[in-house]
UniProtKB/TrEMBL annotation:
Source organism: Roseibium aquae
Organism domain of life: Bacteria
Gene Ontology CC annotations of this record: extracellular region
Name of this protein: L,D-TPase catalytic domain-containing protein
GO molecular function, one term: glycosyltransferase activity
Keywords: Cell shape, Cell wall biogenesis/degradation, Glycosyltransferase, Hydrolase, Peptidoglycan synthesis, Transferase
Pfam families recorded: YkuD
L,D-TPase catalytic domain mapped to chain residues: 83-219
Membership in a protein family: Belongs to the YkuD family.
Pathway noted in the entry: Cell wall biogenesis; peptidoglycan biosynthesis
Length: 220
């Protein structure tokens, strides 16, 4: 009997370890990550330098940022359907809702405009390496931006970054954007300007997941 109990305990431990391993692997896959040989997510690969749209994106110094802002799969029970984006400006998180009460969570940086609007909208446009149009009030504060009144072409120096998601309510542009950034150190912080900014590698990942017409919920 003692032998049988030991065998049962050993079997259950092996079973639970295998389940945990599968769960970790699935969580990494859901977040678009691969696993190191030791079973941990390979963030060095996820945030490595890459070529995109004719531009050489630099690697992200992710180790200099709190790990809670690294892309990861988390438990996220919600009434919103899979495919919905939920933005939590106060906590500097963006969630892409998955099935089964889970979500891919990304760290974000939030400028003043990021706190100026909340509610529900849809993604009407998606743009790769979009133009940036500085608001009039920004040009007033920083006159050297006058040269970009008609737009700054996409590129590594463009503050919109590699991708832009444009939020509309019906036929009204909210002027609220989810976009990349050329200031990676701003993730997890209250940035000086802009809406919702993400690491370039993360906005590319989100861009590839989200569909036109997807609902976006911005928490107050």
């Amino acid at each position: 009997m003692a032998y049988s109990r030991r065998l049962f305990v050993f079997g259950m431990a092996a079973f639970l370890a295998a389940c945990q391993s599968r769960s970790q692997k699935q969580a990494a896959l859901d977040a678009g990550l691969t696993l190191d040989p030791d079973g941990t997510p390979d963030y060095a690969l996820a945030y490595a330098a890459r070529r995109d749209g004719g531009f050489n994106l630099p690697a992200i110094d992710y180790l200099a940022t709190d790990p809670q802002y690294w892309r990861q799969t988390v438990r996220y029970p919600t009434r919103h359907e899979p495919g919905t984006i939920v933005v939590d400006p106060s906590n500097k998180f963006l969630y892409f809702v998955l099935e089964g009460g889970r979500a891919v969570r990304y760290g974000i940086g939030v400028g003043r405009a990021g706190f100026a609007w909340n509610g529900e909208a849809v993604i009407r446009f998606k743009r790769e390496w979009p133009k940036w149009f500085p608001p009039d009030e920004m040009i007033e504060r920083e006159p050297h931006l006058e040269k970009y009144r008609d737009g700054q072409e996409g590129g590594l120096n463009n503050p919109i970054g590699a991708r832009g998601l444009y939020l509309w309510q019906g036929n009204v542009d909210t002027l609220y954007r989810i976009h990349g950034t050329n200031q990676p150190q701003s993730i997890g912080t209250n940035a000086s300007s802009g809406c919702i900014r993400m690491w370039q590698q993360d906005i590319i990942d989100l861009y590839d997941r989200v569909e036109l017409g997807a609902k976006v919920v911005v928490l107050g």
